[in-house]
Fold:
Amino acid sequence: MPHVVTQSCCADASCVVACPVNCIHPAPGEPGFGEAEMLYVDAKSCVDCGACVTACPADAIVPHTTLTAAQKPFLAINAEYFEVFPHKDRTPLALVHPQRRLTRTGPFRVAVVGAGPAGMYAADELLKHPEITVDVFDRLPTPYGLVRAGVAPDHQSTKQVEKLFAQIESQPGFRYFLGVEVGKDVSHAELTARYHAVVYTVGAASDRPLGIEGDDLPGSLSATDFVGWYNGDPDKQDLPVRLDAESIPSGRVVLVGNGNVALDCARILAEDPERLAGTDIAEGPLAVLRDSTVKEVVVLGRRGPGEAAFTVPELVGLMGHTGVNVVVDTGDLPIEEALAGDGTTVRLLRELAGREVRPELRTIVLRFLSSPVRVLGEGRVTGVEVGRNRLERDADGVVRAVPTGETEVLEAGMLLRAVGYKGLPVADLPYDGAIGTVPNERGRVLPGVYVAGWVKRGPNGFIGTNKTDAEETVEQLLDDLDADRIPAPVGDTREITAIVRSRQPGMVDLAGWQAIDREEKRRGAESGRPRVKITDVEEMRGIAAKSRKPRYALGRRKER
Structure:
């Protein structure tokens, strides 16, 4: 196989368009694009030209001859996809759909609330239209959302999508209002009065509680908060993470849930801190991890290996960590029976189960068919009572976990819950409390107000899922502009700038963010790291205040 995709996809699809023989799938317009964990290269069609490598903004495609040992499983994963989906009916070249053009002349102004992946992709789609200018607001002084504060620091290749976002923000017609909280520093009504449209792309902001006894004890933490803590989120730096011998005498941490977030947390807890020292992990958390006495991290999944929530790329990444033991625990179910079948996940878990355990290394235990019953401790977590499950199919054929009634106690000094996110209400917008989203029709809340990302669809998908999601939302917005369904704004964006500056003098614009970015990278270069994240908001604002004019990729559009 000449070239191989080696990680989850950003769904930019540049590689698909660049390929001269249409061998990368699923492509835009094909079933599964936007929802697939990754894209795949067909070995039988690839001509080894390397065009996809140059086009990929996330450095996710490599020649098979340069695969590392940790990346080798992707050879089989790429091949397996085409065994199931041969794509025999594909065209010689990937289809490039014509760019839509607005029928009205504009100009139009759009505000995007949230500078994470969904917001950046939405801005990119909007800026394809020269009639539209975009202002992006975010509560934090730094953009990129969960790419900056959610992707694990040892997954630097995934963070390469920041290069794409940097290209988006450097386009003419783009402005930042960072460090500005919509609903506090500026209201929804003030935005809708001055923009033709407002697109909310705020992500899910809270985790789901376990709802069991003891879940609120000190030492029981949200995995969401833990991820923000080690990634340098300024709001999470005071999180009470205690990994010393007095707090965790058992040397064990229990994680509830086995999705990608849970595996990230487990890996960070088990990883050699000196390997993390070469990443962009926050300095304070790195110091805590250096003094950690954790020896074992148990990841609880209520169903079986075949129903695991983590993705194949995430599991392959875990398999590639040679400095950590990974143990597969299927409880009373014999491992041969639990790991029977031809599925990719099960096949990879079989390989893991056959590996030798090295006692000098920290251990991650992937424990299936297990659910927490209660959290134990007086004044602090000291253990977790865990119940065993069996699998049954309901009337609809869905595999469900059913408690057997058997339980055991695992001593543990910390519990992290990673059982999903839930969106919080957005001021002045309708809210569906059952699923934590804003009710919408393909992204339209009402003409002039739109949503994209998790606030639109709920907490699911990958970074790249937000691209197709944002495209759908922007399509509704463009339809409303062309049909003249949106009332013309009564004010202009110069008023917004004055309002924001008067209420939040420390607002960070594009030049300010670029100054923060340069300073973090400068500090990182001094210590051999990608960057050293600044976690003090006032320090960020101080650096931004001294910034020069922003750097744009092309000529600047006329100021608004």
